[in-house]
Amino acid sequence: METDTIPAVIGTRMAESSQLKKDDIVTIRWRDKDGTFDAADIKIVHIMNTMVPAVDDGQIWISYDRLQSMMGTREHATMVVIQQSLVPPFERAGVWELKSLTYLLRDLEEIKKIQVISYAVMYLLLLFMALLAIFDTQVISIYRRKREIGMLMALGMERKNVIRLFSLEGALQGVLSLIIGALYATPFLILSAKNGIKMPESAGDFGMAISTSLYPVYGWQIIVGSALLMLVSVSIVSYFPSRKITKIEPQKVLAGREE
Predict the structure, then answer these.
(1) What is the CATH number of domain 6-78?
(2) Given this model, what pLDDT does residue 1 score?
């Protein structure tokens, strides 16, 4: 066994937890493949910054040749990355066990499914709150315009046309709000997609590989789908108050006796 100091690399999280700095020398102990303990001094030659916690937390990186010598595992390996075309020969050899990308990323996929459900619930709650505010505004607006509605009905406008008129008015208000929202939201979306959204340094403590900046992707499907969902929802919400108010008696409203 070599007695000189072994160059080693650690991550920023490992350096913080162990209070090690560059050029520090520390003694490590390990157990080889036969269960024999040994020890040697390592020198921290570099502290790397990585977004993958599994590569950083509690890990010390040294030369692979030196590691094989320390562990007594010459010409051994526990992981190999190969091309898709090389998979069948390796499987037939009976030496390597293939782990697909789906298997290796199964934890992230489970987290993704949970996050999609939680974001969908949050999205629906925010949409419900917005539609409730629109509904209240439409109810107040129609209530204050009872005389106008009564006048239209007294002049011969059918109830269905009154409903259509106020539903269209609500839909146009939705279009106006969509345009106004796009005016101030579009620059933010462009900047966030170009420059990314900065993540706190503690984001990696959740045990996931999180970059220092996240770059959102806004596809046309989600933009168009969200706009259509909003317009349809606003139209439906505007329909019910107008349908209710058309049941009034025009003569009573014009006479001021309809409460």
Answers:
(1) 2.40.40
(2) 42
Q: 111 with 95: CB under 8 angstroms?
A: no
How many helices and strands (H and E) does the chain possess? 10, 5
Residues with Cβ within 8 Å of 110's Cβ and at least 6 positions away in sequence, in order, are: none
What token pair was written down for 178? 């969509």
Domains of the chain, by residue range, sit at 6-78, 106-254
pTM: 0.53
- Tokens, residue 15: 């350096």
96 phi and psi angles, rounded to 5 deg:
-100, 140
Residues in the chain: 259
CA distance 9 to 59: 9
pLDDT of residue 9: 92
φ, ψ at 238 (rounded to 5°): -75, -20
Report the C-alpha gap between 248 and 143 in whole angstroms.
11
% of the chain with per-residue pLDDT over 70 = 79
Which residue shows structure tokens 């590691």?
67
Instruction: List pLDDT tens digits, range 198-243.
Output: 766 655 555 566 666 778 887 788 888 888 888 888 888 877 777 7
Cα→Cα distances 191→179, 181, 186, 214, Å = 19, 16, 9, 12
Asked if 258 and 252 touch (Cβ cutoff 8 Å), the reply is yes
